[in-house]
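cron nightly-structures :: item 1 of 1
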Amino acid sequence: MTIDACAALVERGDPDRHLAVMAAPPPARGPLFVLYAFNLEVARAPWVTQEPVIAEMRLQWWRDAVAGAPAGATRAHEVAGPLADLIRSASLPVEVMDRLILARRWDVYREAFADGAAFAAYLDDTGGGLAWLAARALGADAAAEAAARDAGWAAGLAGYLRAVPELEARGRIPLIDGRAQAVAALATEGLARLGRARANRAALPAAAMLAGWQAGPTLKRAQRAPHLVAEGGLAPSEFARRGGLLRAALTGRW
């Protein structure tokens, strides 16, 4: 149950976030690796089995692990152990983690989102919640929550739009409205949220926001050329990907 195990897990399963953490100052890396490993474990729980009941049980296991952590309960698991320590040391809001886990129930099943509000809530509980937990773990106060959630919502949308072809291939219905104008409108909303977050950049630890370094360029591409979403053409070149992270890390302007 070590942070090294969490880092190795993120490196294998979430290479973009691993790059972002390695670009952060060393003191920030431990908390971020733990949170991103937790997020990865929860995010992949619906996909490692074809049985919805088993997926639900995996998610409930994490809900129970998180709920017991503030009172001192620690499970013998390579991620749950360090996560419990971080919850206690950083006084992380377990209700935010619980909503993040519950949101992943949508991934278990094949139904579409009920409406735009349900989709927005999914992004807020997953991307927004994770960004707020990261900011909180690195010392942000409660006043920064809205900005962190806006940044995480935008980053979550960018990642989600990149994943649309794979979600469709797995039998999911990822978008309520896949028409070009609707996709462009989604990207526009994401850019607006990102703009609000950037306007409050001073309140947020830059290291906590680095994981969203690709959000702006990705959403701009989706806004200009929404057909790229269905075609799987939103990913940047490797040069642009790494160059963008380097600029964000050096300037603090994510």
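cron nightly-structures :: done
The mean pLDDT is 96.
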